[in-house]
Amino acid sequence: MDRIVILGAAESGVGAAVLAKKEGFDVFVSDMGKIKAHYKEMLNERGIAWEEGQHTEDLILNAKEIIKSPGIPDKAAMVQKVRAAGIPIISEIEFAGRYTDSKMVCITGSNGKTTTTSLIYHIFKNAGYDVGLAGNIGNSLALQVAEDPHAIYVIELSSFQLDNMYNFRANIAVLLNITPDHLDRYDFKMQNYTDSKMRIIRNQTKDDAFVFWNDDPVIARELKKYNIESRLCPFSILKKDGMIGYIADGEYVIEEPTPFNMEQEELSLTGKHNLYNSLAAGITADLSGIDSEQIRKSLSNFKGVEHRLESVCDVRGVHYVNDSKATNVDACWYALDSMKTPVILILGGLDKGNDYEAIRELVRQKCRGLVFLGVDNRKLHEFFDPMGIPTAEVHSMRDCVTECYRMAQPGDTVLLSPCCASFDLFKNMEDRGEQFKEYVRAL
């Protein structure tokens, strides 16, 4: 019986363990941290051995293959030992793909992938398709393949998940954009991160489709390097030759395979960035044979994604918006670009090699005040203080919301769009967003 070891016991790792057990492997799960109670219960119910708070080398380095959770960096000591021992390392997505023939619709990008993935799933579900939501959202792909199989999977893929995928194939690959993000995981080299994102088209054939934003300069440059066999489906918010989808004269248009159009104002998602997301989702649905009227209906009634430009409430004439998912500078740019009122902007967290130059002018034009929320805010002060905009420094969400309340005037918007990861003060970006909403609603 071949032995598979899983490093990391959260959604991805536990799902992989369940599938490996089902497929007859000798399975062991190891996590350097504390495993959540419900994941322990899942492992125990299925007779899967596990450890927490340590990595026992004798129980790991005898594996035929290692499945590494995406949150574990390659520089981790145990990962280095695994590589030195010559043991192959794969992702949960790669492993799950071996045990299903289902259609794979895969979405990646530096920004917008959660919204686009959720919207595509929404369209497929409303159209009556047997579809599962997986990857960074929903239950892990491996767990669904093992215990809740579907004919189609709509999968949000991070660069970390793409890194350890080798034979996995996306039937429809969607690439929204490539802008600097997670550079701390890629030796602060943009090309390394870009190469990771481009793995979305790996193994595609002439029977597959590649949906991408035509106007992204990084994508345009990278496409010249690849001999792509799949059907190219570029989109733009401008009408241009060769575009599969675009916006023209207030209309949302898909040219092929089945021509479709609707009024732009009918789209439920607003803002320039969401035009890209809506085009990518509509093209993907059209390529999958979904009826035009069903696409129209779903694009019109989608409710959006929690923690992504999520309207919280109004307090004394001030509107509060939760954009905790904005963990990089580009995402914050889109958020600021969509603001129509003066802004109190909340920035800060775990910096990933950010360059704030991209938002300088929008901050200058739109922000009445800045609140820096993080353990170490020195980089934010160095960049933004010379602009002369009032600032406040805080180290908890309670104090953050209090400062925003003090600084804001009726008619303003308080925007949590932090540009940074959340792990310095919060469990994750969801925890950051939930705390923001809790304290705002308590005002």
Give a concise summary:
This protein is about 35% helix and about 20% strand.
- The Rg value, from CA coordinates, equals 22 Å
Helices, by number, come to: 17
User: Helical proportion?
Assistant: 25-40%
CATH evolutionary superfamily of the largest domain: Mur-like, catalytic domain
**Unreliable residue runs:** none
How many angstroms separate the termini?
A: 59 Å
**Residue-averaged pLDDT, rounded?**
94
Give the C-level CATH assignment of the largest domain: Alpha Beta
**Major sheet summary line:** 6 strands, parallel
Per CATH, the architecture of the largest domain is: 3-Layer(aba) Sandwich
Tell me how many strands there are: 20
Strand order of the largest sheet: 7-8-6-9-10-11
Task: Please give a structural write-up.
The strands form four sheets. A six-stranded parallel β-sheet has the order 7-8-6-9-10-11, covered by helices on one side. A six-stranded mixed β-sheet has the order 15-16-20-17-18-19. Helix 15 (378-384) links the parallel strand 18 (367-373) and strand 19. The model has no long low-confidence stretch (mean pLDDT 94). By secondary structure, the protein is α/β, with parallel strands linked by helices. It folds into three domains: 3-90, Rossmann fold, CATH 3.40.50; 94-301, UDP-N-acetylmuramoyl-L-alanine:D-glutamate ligase, CATH 3.40.1190; 310-441, Mur ligase, C-terminal domain (Protein-Tyrosine Phosphatase, Chain A, Alpha-Beta Complex). It has helices at 11-22, 37-45, 57-60, 77-84, 92-97, 113-126, 141-147, 159-163, 190-197, 217-223, 272-287, 292-301, 329-337, 360-366, 378-384, 397-407, 429-441; strands spanning 3-7, 26-31, 49-52, 65-68, 89-90, 103-108, 131-135, 152-156, 172-175, 209-213, 231-235, 245-248, 251-254, 260-263, 310-315, 318-322, 343-347, 367-373, 391-394, 413-416. The longest helix has 16 residues, at 272-287. Helix 1 (11-22) packs parallel to helix 7, helix 6 (113-126) crosses helix 11 and helix 6 crosses helix 12. The chain is built from 17 helices and 20 strands. Helices cover 35% and strands 21% of the residues.
